[in-house]
Every structure is written in C-alpha cells, then in structure tokens.
UniProtKB/TrEMBL annotation:
CDD domains assigned: AdoMet_MTases (cd02440)
Entry-linked InterPro entries: Methyltransf_25 (IPR041698), Methyltransf_Superfamily (IPR050508), SAM-dependent_MTases_sf (IPR029063)
An individual GO BP term: methylation
An example Gene Ontology molecular-function term: methyltransferase activity
Keyword set, alphabetical order: Methyltransferase, Transferase
Protein name: Class I SAM-dependent methyltransferase
Matches recorded under SUPFAM superfamilies: S-adenosyl-L-methionine-dependent methyltransferases (SSF53335)
Domain of life, per lineage: Bacteria
Residue span, Methyltransferase domain: 61-154
C-alpha cells in the first residue's frame, strides 16, 4: 500500500498523464514507497530458487531495473559484475544511490533495443514487474535482445503469476485498470503503456522459444497454491540454447 512518504494523488495523476519515461522520472524519488516496487518476499523467493537450482553465476543483468530492487539479489547471486538497464534516468539515479557498489553498472537504454553487453556475455538476466510496459507485439524484440546479451547456456529468469478468474475481485480490478488505460491512451498523448493482462504464460512461452530459448517453469511454493493445486506463482527459466536445436522443455 502507499505510505505517507509516497506520492500524492496529484503526483500520481501527473505521472499517469506523462510518457512512460517522464512518468517514472517524476515518480522515482518516491517509487520505493509505493506498492509498485517488487516486494522483498518475491525477490527472496526468486533468489532462493535460483541459488538452489543453479548455484552462483558469473555476471548478471537486471532488465528494467527501476530503482534497483533486484540488484541486491544479483550481487549476492553473481560473482562478477552486475548491470541494471532502465529507460528512466530518474529511476537509475535512485538505483545508483541505493547501490554504490563498484561491481554495479547502470545503463540508460530502452529494453526493446538493449545496447551491446560487455565483452563477456551475461550468465543471468532477470526482470521484475516491468512486462506490463510492453505490448505483445514488442515481446519478440525484448526477448531477442535478452537472448543476444546472454552467453550460450545463460539463463533469463522472471516470476509470473497464475491466471486470475472473473470470480476474483482482482480480475475485475486489473480488467478495469487495463480498460481505463486503453481509454487514456486513445484520447491522450503521449501514451503511457502499462497493462496487467497482456503477459499470459502461453504467449510468453511461445515468444521465448521463437527467440531461441528453451523454457521451463518451476513453482514458487513460497506463495502457496490455488484450490485446484496449481501454484499461485511460477518462476520462468528461459535458457539460451548452447548450440543444439531448440526443443520442447517440460514444465514442472
């Protein structure tokens, strides 16, 4: 929830009527006091799962790093350098203040056109809470850029929630939000792209495979299971192929 140190209604309105880049520049000083920041509980669950399954990594990349919520996790998981990429200069400035570690590099760039990485490609890429800013047609460019930034065998990991149904109050909330954003973008410029229901696992899996990844998911049982026994959250593990033909990976 918002805290007393968070943005005011007027500040949120100014953000909503701006472009994505300008909106986050405006919000950045108070972003960590909003519910939009990835919760530490999610970061801890992803870190624990990656550490148990993969051990440690060489270098790491945080795609759309924002104020740096995922950078601390990468610093613990990775032995080498860690890079955060974001479109907003304001968000990167907050990340720089939060993580003055000499192993951290921060790069301002559009995730749909990632700049060339270091001479040694990354071993691990992660992303948290940013995919609503990309329309489905933009996913192939996003995933292809991450694929190019990883070494063969490198891993792209991110959490994804289970589908919600119309029987849930959350379904009506996110559907209403997405509808309001579509109306806003139809009548106001510049657009502010942020939708909650444009990143389904099936389409995401297909786009990742088309970009050259093998894909599996593992349950994040830290968040429990739904009444039908399926996990509320999964961790997507998309691995850049090592040279063999891309095949079908079974989901757990």
């Amino acid at each position: 929830m918002f805290t007393s140190q968070g943005p005011t209604v007027r500040e949120l309105a100014a953000q909503a009527l701006s472009s994505v880049e300008r909106g986050y520049d405006l919000l950045s000083p108070k972003f960590d006091q909003t519910p939009f920041r990835t919760p530490d509980r999610m970061l801890d669950a992803v870190e624990e799962t990656l550490a148990q399954r993969e051990g440690s990594f060489g270098s790491g990349l945080d795609v759309c790093c924002g104020t740096g919520a995922g950078l601390g996790m990468l610093l613990r998981l990775c032995r080498g350098r860690v890079t955060g990429v974001d479109l907003s200069a304001g968000m990167l400035a907050e990340a720089a203040r939060a993580y003055p570690d000499e192993r951290v590099d921060l790069v301002r760039a559009d995730a749909r056109a990632l700049p060339p990485g270091p001479a040694d490609p990354y071993d691990l890429a992660v992303s948290f809470g940013a995919f609503g800013h990309f329309l489905p047609a933009e996913r192939p460019a996003l995933f292809s850029g991450v694929h190019a930034a990883l070494r063969p065998g490198g891993l792209f990991a991110f959490p994804i929630g289970a589908p919600i149904t119309p029987a849930s109050a959350a379904w009506w909330a996110v559907t209403g939000f997405d509808a309001a954003m579509r109306v806003r973008n139809a009548v106001w410029r510049p657009p502010f792209v942020m939708y909650y229901r444009t990143f389904p696992l099936g389409g995401v899996r297909a786009d990742l495979r088309a970009a050259g990844f093998t894909v599996e998911t593992v349950p994040l049982d830290h968040f429990g299971r739904r009444p039908d026994g399926t996990p509320r959250w999964r961790l997507v593990l998309a691995r850049r192929a090592t040279g063999a033909p891309v095949g079908r990976a079974e989901d757990e």
